[in-house]
Amino acid sequence: MPLADRALVVGINRYQGIKKLCGAENDAQNFFNWVTHPTGGGVDPGQATKILSSNFPAAASVNDDLPAKEQIERFFTEVDDAADANNVAGLGPKAGNRVWLFFSGHGFAPALDTSGVLMANATLKRIHNIAAMLWANRLYEGGWFDDVFLFQDACRNRIPNGDLTPPFLRKRQAPRNQQRRRFYAFSAKDQKLSVELPFPPPNGEKHGIFTRTLLQGLRDARDPRTGAVTTTQLKAYLQANMKNLLPEADKENDDFAQAPEVFDPDPPFDIVAAPAAPQVPQFPVRIFTAAGRAARVMDGTLANELASENPAPAEWVLRLQRGLYKLLVEGADARLFEVAGALEPDGSPREIQVR
Amino acid sequence: MSADKTLIVQAADEVAEISVLNSTFDPVARGVGRLQQALPTGVYKVTVRVGPVVEEQLVSLDEDRTVQIAAPEIPSPIPFASSTHSHSSQRQVAISASSRPRDVFGHGASIFIFARETTSEDDASQRNPAAGLSLLDENGQLLCDIEERANIGSDGAPCAGWRADVSPGAYRIRLDLPNHTSFERALVATGGKQTQLFMFERDYGLPQAETHRAADLAGGTVVICASDRFDPSDERARLTELAAYALVQKRRVLSDGLTNRLLDGKFEDPMQGLLGAHIILRDRPEDTHLFEVVTDNLKRLLGQDHPDVQALWLRRRNRGDVTEIRLRTPPMLRAGWDLATEESVRDNDLIPSEAPSGTIAFKVLAAGPWLLWRGDEQHEAELESLTPDVSAAAGPLADYLKTRARVQAERAPAPGALRRLNFAVRSLPGVRSVVGPPEPASPTPVTLSVDEKAELARTLGIPGNAIENVLKSFSR
Hints:
heterodimer; A: alpha/beta; Rossmann fold; Immunoglobulin-like; 2 domains; four-stranded antiparallel beta sheet; B: Immunoglobulin-like; seven-stranded mixed beta sheet; 15 helices; 32% helix; 25% strand
């Protein structure tokens, strides 16, 4: 299928040489479901490669455990083959319009572009890994795709930093007239640890809080004007909401990643187009006011009154879209509040309380 | 439509990254250190990032407003008052230990090592934060077991400090872990200054899912101090910490204030100048004048023989009277090593293989911003135990070449070429043991372009002469 969107989704739970994980494969499966859904990423399932550690039998020796790098690198070879075929067919030297790269497992990230995702055969001495951002950059710079998305939910360990290997696809320059864009998001940065938790607590299926927030954002972080999920909306959603899934005690622990690292060097663009009938989600807001006072809620432009009550009840419940708002209460200081669109662990909208 | 209003955001940190989002979370303004922007009336979210710390504030811009952002606590191993988890007892230990040499190996400069815990949990108080640390000379010979010699502070969160007077020159700090893994990094002592290394404690993964707590060597911050002791009230090194973060995490922090400070050479800590020079190379590569002024200032402060200065000098268009550069000792910054290895592809003698810098060729690890390499004997033994053909090609370089050969063999367009490539693949160690010896045929050498070698050098941290040796061994 020429110029098809493609996806590589990798989830590794089984690490004989390190600590095993519980949520990486769940995350990969959920992302695969989203990226291949017609209203999600829209990738044809035939063009999406899903690699889970459970796809392979456990090897007797960790050195033989799979997936290793070779299983991942096969995808990039196929991408290059597709680009060659398209070039021969007169469609230009690119493999497709969009590529989605998703990795979930152990990893390390001493710096933004030297992060690695560990393979199943990694040990503390031989830290076999895929340099995900180096690969994403190679595909972007060479114009193998117009849009490159990379999501990495890794760094779930205290492993020392490993060696990185640059991509084996030869560097090339994209055609001058090709418009290229990229958007990357990483669960952790600067040696922080990513967290996986049960959803719903306490005994639900385990998921990384980054992927959980990412998939919520890909669904709900819609621009209220257009209904599309844009890069800026998704970035704001990730940065505002990932920490909300952490237990309170873990928020005090400097070792745990509180916010993702997002790399979005290009002007904003649509990640998910607006549906035919845009439905921008709304979230519950509970405003506590002194009884008997008039109150108004202004939108973020301060030009439009969205709601008013005179007198406002002591607990005034509204539903608002994601955004910034101003509460004006008679005889009291104005209050500013944000509706970030956070969800509870069970997936229900989290109530914003304005006091 | 109402007239625009002016929003001014003034941060205490001159490298604070300021961004302003409108009520629908679209970015509408950016700045470093200070921002002044005319914006329509509305509610805005001001986000200020100082290193890894992000602070947010909602602002109602219904009139001109000025927002002052105080300096937040940052997670720095330097025990300033403004560092997170900083304890006064640790500051006292650092002052005391940095003031008096515990050991003397020379004169003219000093080295101060400080490692600290962040909590005072019961089990932490029993540990020596300097466990596993030692000082080596530039050739890797042991000078001192710091663990045995450090002053330990156990009042509250434990810490350990150790100072040695040394002759100016290159040294190494080594960390040994119980599983016989070790890491090293460079520490360059400058005449008339104290080179200080501050580290947090962190957990290291061990086999059987155990962890071991020891100094975070890779994350330790280096300060080059004009005085001969640590001063917790002097928070100018905070800028060093933030500049190091910015370099590694690709943050754009080159404010006018920072630029002017670099131009004037008035960086209180020469490490600021080194970091600033790398940030200039990355963010303003076209500003060669600025880069040359900064590197001239660094040469004056640190000397031409300082390996970090040498590495930066490689990128100068005008090298002045420096006609030949030989990087004999590793620099402290990974960015400097990357400059050197990339240049070494074109100048094979830049990193002499027999020099201390050449001996770390295959041991450099992905880390930032400091240059870190494996130093354990186990790793050495692994390299030496392999056959001569591959002893120089261990690790990721071998993996890369094998993958290239395999991919090219799979795509060979014609039987003759296929045979040649097949021979090349089957000749590779590792492959041979699986598929048997190659058929007798003319081997095809594995070739890489200069750009590909430079990328390998930069990513793997391997000098050009080492890459050439590996390629030759694969072609035999």
